[in-house]
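Marked as duplicate of an earlier ticket. Keeping the data here for the record.
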Amino acid sequence: MKENLEQLTVRLNAETARISWPELERHFARGVLLTVSPEQDLVQVGAHMIHDDKIVIDALLETAELRKTTDDDARGWSECETELWAVVVVPWVLVQEK
């Protein structure tokens, strides 16, 4: 049975964590790291991805509020030893600066 959006949000909220950049580098190298803009709710974006809400995800991609993590992002986070919020939405790892 497919979880509804509210159930997904509750589950994903429990699965979020603050994580240091070095722990995320391998995911970046694999090309599975996506950045969520600070204006968006990380958990809600993840829930929409799992729920395959194409309209919502396409809108986020179009406005770059959800995007592939760039080399510039990686460099900056590495230099500043940034901790990010992260949640896994297989096959993706979503990250967000707070």
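See parent ticket for discussion. The chain has one domain: 5-96.
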